[in-house]
UniProtKB/TrEMBL annotation, chains A, B:
Family, per entry: Belongs to the peptidase M32 family.
Name assigned to this protein: Metal-dependent carboxypeptidase
Biological function: Broad specificity carboxypetidase that releases amino acids sequentially from the C-terminus, including neutral, aromatic, polar and basic residues.
Cofactor notes: Binds 1 zinc ion per subunit.
Length: 501, 501
């Protein structure tokens, strides 16, 4: 078989897998948005059946042969070509897949499924002890997985690498420390400044909220003919396939900003998904997202850099006032202040931009200790509360508001949390670079013209797929190695604008 | 491998295939109900990928080995056991699957996909010539399929057997002739009788229509926690998986009865699906529908025998009047007359109970001639119009209202149409038998209590799955071989009640 034939076979295999992944994504979306109550057990079986097929396809020995036939051929001579990138990334995926024994993969999938249900009940009942054995199982299996995958010095790195290729705990820790120092400094400065005024009281009509969301998501570039907006208990974004990026939201009549920023966040994910899928490489690594942090950078950029900015609200405040009569007297400046207030709290998903990263530090340090074996599962609640007091200045009154608040560990997603802060960092790097490339960006945004920004992101991030590893992708887009400095500048500027410090 | 081990392997294989079929069903439902406009090409690929996997599973040589290990063992000693039925039916499915070469299966799937699109355009443009080459391809491939499947005397039988196991054209023809004679007789009798009064004019509020549909579908037994009701351009019913039977409708503000009877019809399908899936044999033939005609018998029974009857409207007329103010003065008797009027028309899906079967005769005779090679594709429009005049007394003014009106042939479904009339016949047989088994059935229905009827159908039809071939299933349920007589009695009684003839 020639290298070209092997490459064609590789891509056909990858594209067929992508079509199965699309079916799996639809099963998952439907489960959260549409599924009748009696159908959940059946749905779990359906997801299991397709997952098993995908796992076998990912480990198919034919893949190994095709990859060997491609590697070292003329197709990999220029690493910048789509062919070379696809071969490199398919090799990465294949090597990871074959390292995980099928029994371990199945055990992890089952533990994640039962673990998630156990976590839901434990959080509801504030009963960490009921969840602890599941967490122990998931931790044990994840450590086994890290051993199977292999690592240099730190087992945690093997897990982190699954979400963020090339990333290491030793590189994450100092970056998170920088974000902590900045947050502590900002919190110290604003301590005695008057808090910005809240938005007018609700209720905010939910039909009007939906109208505004549809207007704003379309305004920033999400085509209604390539997406859906639906309601689910937990908002999320999912790509089903080409031309089909779906987001969900949840309406709170007392506070329209929850659904609003949530939907803008998910729109950022959806715009990225449509962007890399639409680059002509769907079903191959060149048409896939670069990493979890890069994905998060797109949602955070639109949510924070754009939708919490003054230019954005110059255009959107009249739209919002047309939907909600009580906003008639609210200025864009007042809007920006209200949605930018810094208030340390117990719940990560409700956190402001500045203190959000403190939540990530807390989780990163704890999961690192768990994976290392330095922290026993039984000691997690105490360790969480101690660290929460030290980092956030708050001790959770219950585990439900503490170590049981997040879903991630209940599905075995150890090593996932750092991608949130990396995403925040990348978002700030990209928005600064976009501002250099589009000198009149604030004026464009104030005029409701978000196309130049979306086009810049499309060209420099979306269309690139997995052509470059995450850090290299950000460096190529911005012209410099990514650091926390742009995010820190952004947070300081915001504190200055809102609190005058 | 012991027979029991082989049987367990067979069933595990069948159950995993059922989970993939469920995913395919969801892809299909979503395509008609939810899919963003830009996503149709991607969806076709996803359906293609899962179809290819299913086809390979259906022909898996391991199936042949397991079946051989089971057949003739103690598992098949008593043909009435679920094991024997499953083995017999899995053998039937396997033998059919392996007879179709993969190239032919792929060619048919592609021709069906392009044919359906070509038909949609041709119907819109009233352009039979544009559709003719597609029809020719589908006919050629279907005849090739019939050859591959094999038959005794009539190629058509090989295709018919895919929908209705054991059925033959030679057995269908006299039954359809009996229905034609009855219809001609009824039409002659009512010719000079005054037509029943129409229902009051619309508009019928579509939100109120939806309210009524949800009330009535729940009333007759469709649980909202095991089903969904959504809107689609073409109403349909689909089983996604256990506890998940979905129906769709389309609202016409001028005439609430279209959505109403359509939804009751689809509810009949859904009740059957939930019934056979819920019998503990999901994913194996014992948990599958017996045939297309048996499926249709369930929709027709609820649509015609139940929902066009006086006892039904004694209970439902006040519910309808609560939704639509203009029905305040309409009696149950007037309602039954209005929805039971006999009016020959050009369009099958709008036909009344009596003339519906005339449409089926028309199509059966034409598709039989096409498959035999006695009728050329180019001559179809002329043959259709001639036969329409002879059978219905009407000549279509356009092909869009004539030979282009149905979707079936555009997807290669030759041999499907007779199942509609068989379904009508089986529905009447079953309703008569249920009436014998439940002496106070009319009183129960008039009191809004449809549980005894549903329970009788569940016990005698739904829960049986594919335990018996279709005719044997109806015979076992009713205590006599199915004939057209009960349907003819039903139609005559209705004509008598409405027209006094």
């Amino acid at each position: 078989m020639t290298a070209r034939q092997a490459y064609d076979a590789l891509l056909a295999h990858s594209r067929a897998s992508a079509d199965i992944i699309a079916a799996l994504s639809l099963l998952g979306w439907d489960q959260q948005v549409m599924l009748p109550a009696q159908a959940h057990a059946g749905r779990a079986n359906q997801i299991g059946a397709l997952t098993a097929i995908l796992h076998r396809r990912a480990c198919d020995p034919a893949m190994g042969q095709w990859l060997a036939d491609c590697e070292g051929s003329e197709l990999t001579a220029d690493p910048a070509t789509p062919e070379a990138a696809n071969i490199r990334e398919l090799r990465r995926d294949y090597d990871q897949a074959v390292k995980i024994p099928e029994a371990l993969a199945v055990a992890l999938a089952q533990a994640a499924s039962t673990g998630q249900r156990a976590w839901e009940l434990a959080r509801k009942d504030n009963d960490f002890q009921a969840f602890a054995p599941h967490l122990q199982t998931l931790l044990d299996l994840s450590r086994e997985k890290a051993q199977a995958l292999g690592y240099q010095t730190e087992a945690y790195d093997a897990l982190l690498d699954l979400y963020e290729p090339g990333e290491k705990a030793a590189a994450i820790a100092p970056v998170l420390a920088e974000l902590r120092d900045a947050a502590v400094d900002i919190l110290g400065r604003i301590k005695d400044a008057p808090a910005p005024a809240d938005l007018p009281d609700g209720p905010y009509d939910t039909a009007a909220q939906e109208t505004l969301l549809r207007q704003v998501t379309a305004l920033i570039g999400l085509s209604p003919t390539a997406s859906r907006l639906d309601v689910s208990a937990h908002p999320f974004s999912t790509l089903i396939g080409p031309g089909d990026a779906r987001i969900t939201t949840r309406f709170d009549p007392a506070d329209f900003t929850k659904a609003f920023f949530g939907a803008v966040h998910e729109t950022g994910h959806a715009l990225y998904s449509l962007g890399h899928v639409g680059n002509g490489h769907y079903g191959t690594p060149m048409g896939e997202p670069a990493s979890f942090a890069v994905h998060e950078s797109q949602s955070r950029l639109w949510e924070n850099q754009v939708a919490r900015s003054l230019p954005f609200w110059r255009h959107v405040t009249p739209m919002a006032a047309a939907c909600f009569p009580q906003l008639a007297g609210t200025s864009p400046e007042a809007m920006v202040k209200a949605v930018g207030a810094v208030r340390p709290g117990l719940i990560r998903v409700d956190a402001d931009e500045t203190t959000y990263n403190l939540h990530i530090i807390l989780r990163f340090e704890l999961e690192l200790a768990l994976v290392r074996g330095d922290l026993a599962v039984a000691d997690l609640p105490g360790a969480w509360n101690e660290k929460s007091q030290a980092i956030l200045g708050l001790t959770p009154p219950t585990d439900a508001l503490g170590c049981l608040q997040d879903v991630h560990w209940s599905t075995g997603a150890f090593g996932y949390f750092p991608t949130y802060s990396l995403g925040n960092i990348y978002a700030a790097c990209l928005f600064e670079a976009a501002g250099r490339a589009i000198p009149d960006l604030p004026e464009r945004m104030a005029a409701g013209d978000f196309a130049p920004l979306l086009q810049w992101l499309h060209t420099n991030i979306h269309a690139k797929g997995r052509q470059l590893p995450p850090r290299a992708l950000i460096a190529a887009a911005t012209g410099q190695q990514p650091t926390a400095a742009p995010l820190v500048r952004h947070l300081r500027a915001k504190a200055s604008a809102i609190y005058g410090v």
